[in-house]
Amino acid sequence: MRRRDRFVVFSQQWTGVTPSLRSVVFGAAFTVMMLVLVVFSQPLPSERFRDRTALWQRSGKNILSGFRNMYNFHVLHEPGAEYPFRAWFFGWAVEDCNTNVPGFRGCDAIFAARAKRLDGPWEVYAGDGKWDATGSPRWWKPLFAPLGTYFDEWHNGDPSVVKVGKRYYMAYSATGHDKDRQPDGTRSDTDGSYLCIIGRSLRGWHPLETLGEAHPRLPARVRQKSH
Fold first, then answer.
1. In degrees rounded to 5, what are phi and psi of residue 221?
2. 19 vs 123: CA distance, rounded Å
3. Concatenated DSSP letters of 152-182
4. What confidence score (pLDDT) does residue 204 get?
5. Mean pLDDT computed over 32-36
6. How far is CA 202 from the centre of its chain?
7. Across 12-19, average pLDDT
8. 103 and 109 in contact (C-beta within 8 Å)?
9. How far apart are CA 124 and CA 120, in angstroms?
10. Distance CA 110, CA 146 (A)
11. What is the pTM of this model?
12. What is the pLDDT averaged over residues 213-217?
């Protein structure tokens, strides 16, 4: 309805434009269209099509399996460590929105894993300093709970981790139910959709404790997506 209203206003305003100005607008639009066609019709460099399959190796083994819905396995390699391969990923381990995890309030959650070899076996963080080496998702625990704000109470995911000195920095995406508590795009929606990137930092390799304990968070970058 909002888009239709805007289109009607634009149409009404357009009817008051003089023919000469219309010609200028159409001419400019045609020129831009031709430039776009010329740019995108150029052949791509040959190196874009180079076959690099030989540079990759596939073991054919499953890294993790048996979970409900999980992805974005982000691996950090630290040579010389007891577990040189460390990973963060997100989703639902057993039930939709991780409803099987006692005390967890949210939906998508971030998990951690570790391994001595890239092809495994991998262990997944199971809370209270424990690690699951049996491959049983029912033991896996989220690294932290959402803050419960309008921009992170529902989704925490897409983890990306770097290490600087002895400190780990994680950036991840977050969404909530917005300030007005109304779904984006509905008739009653007043504030669009809030999309957020949050940062966390931790000194030393130890997963962020699970539910309830506070850890340093870098300032959140919130972007409001309006209609």
1. -100, 110
2. 71
3. TSSEEEEEEEEEETTEEEEEEEEE-S-TT--
4. 61
5. 73
6. 20
7. 53
8. no
9. 11
10. 10
11. 0.67
12. 39
Strand order in the sheet with 69-77: 69-77, 85-92, 109-115, 122-127, 130-132
| Average pLDDT for the chain | 76
Instruction: Return the residue matching tokens 């009653």.
Output: 188
Question: What does the alpha-carbon distance between residue 192 and residue 2 come to, in Å, rounded to a whole number?
Answer: 12
The answer on pLDDT for 138 being more than 70 is: yes
Q: What is the DSSP string of 81-136?
A: SSS-EEEEEEEESSSGGGTTSTT--SSBEEEEEEESSTTS-EEEEEETTEEE-S--
102-113 mean pLDDT? 90
Token pair in block for residue 26:
């159409």
The helix, strand and coil proportions of the chain, stated in percent and rounded to the nearest 5, come to: 20, 30, 45
The two tokens of residue 60 are 């054919």
Q: Look at residue 11 and tell me whether its pLDDT is greater than 70.
A: no
Is there a cis peptide before residue 19, judged by omega within 30 degrees of 0? no
Task: Give the DSSP H or E segment for 218.
Answer: strand 217-225
